[in-house]
Amino acid sequence: MKGLVFCEFLEMVEKEFGYETVDHIIENTNLPSNGVYTSVGTYSHEEMFALVGQLSAKTNIPVSKLFYAYGEYVFGVFGNAYKELILGYENAFDFLCRVEDTIHVQVLKLYPEAELPRIEVKNRSDEFLELVYTSKRKMSDFAEGLIQGCMKYFNENASISKEFLSEDQSQVLFTIKK
Amino acid sequence: MSKETDLLLKKIERERLARKQAEKLLEEKSLELYESNQQLKSLNNNLEHLVEERTQKLFDTEQEYYALVESITDIICKVNLRGEIVFVNQIASTIMGQSKEELLGQRVLNFIPRDYRSKIFKYFARQFLRNKCISYFDLPIITGQKNILWVRVNVQFTEDRCKNCDLKRCFLAGLTDDVISSNNCEFNEIIIVAHNITERRRNELEIARNLKQQEILTEISVNYNSISDFESNTNEAVRIIGQHTGVSRVYLFEDSADGLSTSNTYEWCNDGIESQIHELQEIPYSEIPSWKKLLKEEGIVYSDKIEQLPEDIRLILEPQGIKSIIVLPLIESGNIFGFIGFDECDSNHQWTKSEIELLRTVSSTISTAFLRHRIQTDLVISEKENRGIIDSIPDEILRLNREGTVISYKSRCDVSIFEKLNQPEVNSIIDVLSEDLSNSFISSIEECIVKGNFEFNFSSFHHDTMQYFEARFVKLNSTEVLVIVRNVSEIKENEKQLQIAKNKAEQASKAKSEFLANVSHEIRTPMNAILGFSEWLHSNVENPQHKNYLHTIMTSGRNLLALINDILDLSKIESGKMNIELEPMQCKVVINQMKQVFKQKLEAKNLAFNISVDSSVPMYIYMDEVRFYQILFNLVGNAIKFTSKGFIHVSVSAAKTSDPNAINLILSVEDTGIGIKEDQQADVFKAFTQQSGQSNRYYEGTGLGLTIVGGLLKKLNGEISLKSEVGRGSKFTIKFKDVKIAEVSAEEDQKAKELNDFVLEPCKILIVDDLKFNILVLKRIIEFDNVTFLEAESGEQAIEIMETEQPDIVFMDIRMPGMNGYDATEVIRNNPEWNHIPVVAFTASIMNDELERIHKLFDEYLQKPVFRKDVFAVLKRFMKIKYLNAEDAQIIEDEVKLSGECIAALPEIIEGLESKFITDWKKIKNDLIIYEIEDFSKNLSDFAFKKSCIILDNYCKDLDLAIQSFDIELIEKQIGGFDKVVIELKTYLQ
């Protein structure tokens, strides 16, 4: 997992809960990186789960909510960092439809070792979009946050419903309605 | 430290670590980047290099293609869709006679004759629509110099992807503007390759023309082979060639027999052309001298403009309206006998080379036809002549096939054995001749067909007389022969009469010789009395006149006797009674005898006598010794007779022949006598001839000597030659041809020497003979101490003896009363105890048919009278013998001189001599009457033989020799010595 995700996560934690909480979750989690992250580095996704788990324990906020919040937050960060990637899209659905074949392709060009989820478009109309998320990481909450962040980025309102297509939550159907 | 500070420090520391981590990462990344960059750079370099290389290669290939395009002999050009030339190779410029620059931009169709353009379009359109890449079209093109060239063209589109493109169709239809205005057509150029086939096309046309000419020639030749007559054939030939060439007039001229003038004999005129034949008769060549000269030297008179021809020819051609002309000679065996001409009155015809060649061939064909015509005419005449000859000869001529069928028959004979053939239903010799004769004819026909010719003679009864015929067969072909039969009865009769006359003449000649021989013998007997008494009287008469008369009688008598002897020999030779017996002879010994024989005469004349025998002469040769002696005696006798001083030289040598076992013996007798004139040399060999002027009185002789020599030489395969100079001497040279060398001579010589060099081991010899006398002879020959002789007088007696006493060898007479030699020997052969004993036949006469039986039954045979060497050879072969050394051999030889048997019988012999022979001797010794002496000699000889007395025998031989040679002196000497012989014999009594 890219260091940028860790950096932005710790930034968000510091912003929301202060550096003390950041220090707390780093100090109380067994991390191979000792909590030192740089945006250009790559770290195990286990560390993310550990940090989120530690934060949830400290703040009493469920992990899923934390991932959701982080997803929403980080899309804004990505939107600023990689404006040129989003610039060509007129609305959120257009963008979401091209995540798999454009965004992820570009990401893999930069980070060939990145392990990305598959985002398939199942159905689409102007008001309605069905996406199928598939990933071994089972981070559908993070994905939901990202979708929410995207809607926000394009200043659109939509309801996002989630349906697990597999028991281990590795495959999830998102239904987005404007 | 406050809690915040602590946190801050921690944060700063983490950020510092993160920064360091980031820096490290960045550094790694930038290093990676750097390396990637380097790699990229080198890749880029490689790429540039590759591009450069490929570009160069492309350039090279382009150059190659360019060179190829430029070196090819075909025109290659590219044409754009407007039909304008955009590329053209150098050869095109050469072929078209225009520079590249001039060609570029021109429309390609401008080079093609208008009427070909649409054809070409249609053709290639068809080919392209079938998607054929390569297809050719032959078409003419116009060069810059307005010449027409023929080319074979192939057209290709540069881009094949729009195969089915409609635009292509448009283009092919000639709608080029539509194509150009359309911008999505992918082809924009057409490649045209054109191969220059002008030369080939010309050749093809030439071949076609030649074929046509061939047809014309064939037509003319075939025309001549048709059955029509020669004249109409020739007219037809002239027409054919005239129509083919399309000239105004064709004509043949034939020269007069003297070759001085010429006449038009055949003519063909094209439509609207006037005939000239009647005006052109007997034109003298003197009017047109150039004509014959040109025909002879150039072999042609030719001009497409007659103004160019010599004046004399022009003057004769112009009035006929001729504008161009070609004339060729008609030639037979190298001589011009006329000509064939072609006139053109309408235009100046330019004759091509091949046309001229055609005319030449036509002229030669017509010449040949003329020749053939002439030969045929000659043949007909010759046939007529031959027929006349055949009709007039008296022979009968038949043409027959293998079966004897008569195909034709011709006879001028009044009487013929083939008469029957004149009957219509008879057509085979089988029906005409007898069975035997017709079979002979059939087999002769077969023989003739194999050999080519054959002859046979036959006779046949015809009208009750025997007629003789000669039949000559000549092969005509593989199944037929010509038979020429000639009646030769008359010739045969003449020959027969001639043969009878010849036989009569020969008989008369033989009778003459026989008469002469008989007369000579009868004369000899009275001559003995005349000579003998004359001599006696001569020595007893005192009166000198009487003595002189007697001397004359004696000399005349001797001469007469010599003449008679010679005549006898000559008549023997002439009547063919002279037999030649070739036996091994020692040449040297015979020659040496001459010296002895002529000793007295040589001494009396004081002549030297030299003998030289070349080492090449073999020791023994097969020769008739008596005749050789006679020849030598005559030659030497002559030499002595005609030589008064100097020497006689006899030499003999041998020359090799092709047969290694034979030589040519060369004998020469040279003297220093009177010599013989050159013009008389040839006569010396004729009978009864002596040199003219030769004093008969001085040089006595019959003149028959050399004639006898000549006759003998004929018998002995010899020839004689003479070299002589008057006053200097003569040299007679004799060459005996192919004289056989006696090969066994050395062996026999050795045997002769060895004769007495052995003795027999103790043995028993049985001699069987009904005549006691014969047994005695054999016993006298086999005289060894150790031998026991058994004697039998018949076959029965011999078998009887053998039952008690076994001999080691048997000598068996054949003809005996009772059991003969064959029967007795068969008994011996059939007895196993005896059959190992050698039995030698011992007989006087053997018929040829008996020889085989003798060889089968006997081990060997001896012929009576037996010679010691033969008997000894038999003994050596079958008996155990012991060889002696030289001294012992000598002793035996001495002893043998008078055999033991003889010594034993000596008292009896001496008594016989004294009681009978001495008395007789005393009576005759002084009278010297030859026949008395002959009788005495004969009786004594018989006595000597019976008594096996060698001394007496030798005496008789010497005496006989003297009598035979009528040498009175020698006879006197010999007969006078008889008492001494008796005395000698008496010495052996001791």
What topology emerges from the helices and strands here?
The complex is a heterodimer of chains A (178) and B (990).
Chain A lengths: L2 H25 L17 H15 L3 H19 L1 H5 L4 H6 L1 H12 L7 E7 L3 E7 L5 H14 L5 E6 L6 E7 L1
Antiparallel strand pairs in A: 1-2, 2-4, 3-4
Chain B lengths: L2 H69 L3 E6 L4 E4 L1 H7 L3 H4 L10 H16 L6 E7 L5 E10 L8 H7 L3 H6 L7 E8 L1 H28 L4 H16 L3 E7 L5 E9 L13 E2 L4 H9 L3 E3 L7 H7 L6 E9 L2 E10 L8 H40 L3 E6 L4 E5 L18 H4 L2 H17 L1 E10 L2 E11 L4 E8 L1 H52 L3 H31 L8 E4 H11 L1 H7 L2 E6 L6 E4 L1 H17 L5 E10 L5 E10 L33 H11 L2 E8 L3 E12 L4 H10 L3 E3 L2 E6 L3 H10 L5 E6 L2 H10 L4 E4 L8 H10 L8 E5 L4 H10 L2 E4 L4 H11 L2 E3 L2 H12 L2 H25 L5 H17 L3 H15 L3 H9 L1 H10 L3
Parallel strand pairs in B: 18-20, 25-26, 25-27, 27-28, 28-29
Antiparallel strand pairs in B: 1-2, 1-5, 3-4, 4-5, 6-7, 6-11, 7-8, 9-10, 10-11, 12-13, 12-16, 14-15, 15-16, 17-19, 20-21, 21-23, 22-23, 24-30
Keywords:
heterodimer, A: 178 residues, alpha+beta, H-NOX domain, 2 domains, four-stranded antiparallel beta sheet, 4 strands, B: 990 residues, Beta-Lactamase, 8 domains, six-stranded antiparallel beta sheet, five-stranded antiparallel beta sheet, 20% strand, elongated
